[in-house]
Amino acid sequence: MDPVDFPKSSADGIDLDSLSFDVYHCPTGAGGKEWGCVLDGNAVHIVYGAVGAKPNYYRKDFSNSHEALAYSAKKLKEKARKGYTFNRKQAFKRSELVTA
């Protein structure tokens, strides 16, 4: 399998402050869950986690921007089916995220 297929947790070399994530909320259980994404060229950056907790971060790289757009559209449809709705736009500092 091509290494491009695996999500990457490392935020090394990424200016996270410049990325504005679309954050979606799903009201389940104790406070709910959040999921956010932003396209950046050939990459999709993802944040996710429980409301009130430090979000997890990963990025997924693609060979071109069309594949990245298709992936993010697919994920957004999955999240909508699960009850997620748009909540806000947000930028994150590296210290605000759980990265590997």
Blueprint (SSEs and pairs):
Elements: E1 21-26, E2 33-40, E3 43-50, E4 56-61, H1 65-81, E5 85-90
The overall pLDDT, averaged over residues, is: 88
Q: Given the helix and strand composition, which structural class is it?
A: alpha+beta
Distance between the termini: 21 Å
SSE succession: EEEEHE
Level of helix content? 10-25%
The number of E-state strands comes to: 5
Strand order across the largest sheet: 4-3-2-1-5
| Global Rg | 13 Å
The geometry reads as globular
What composes the largest sheet? 5 strands, antiparallel
Q: Helix count?
A: 1
Q: Catalogue the unreliable spans.
A: none
Strand content: 25-35%
Could you write a compact summary of the structure shown?
With 100 residues, the protein is α+β, with helices and mostly antiparallel strands. It has one helix spanning 65-81, and strands at 21-26, 33-40, 43-50, 56-61, 85-90.
Structural notes for this entry:
With 100 residues, the protein is α+β, with helices and mostly antiparallel strands. Helix content is 17%, strand content 34%. It has a 5-stranded antiparallel beta sheet, covered by helices on one side. A hairpin with a 6-residue loop joins strand 1 and strand 2 (33-40). The longest helix has 17 residues, at 65-81. The radius of gyration is 13 Å and the shape is globular. The two termini are 21 Å apart. The model has no long low-confidence stretch (mean pLDDT 88).
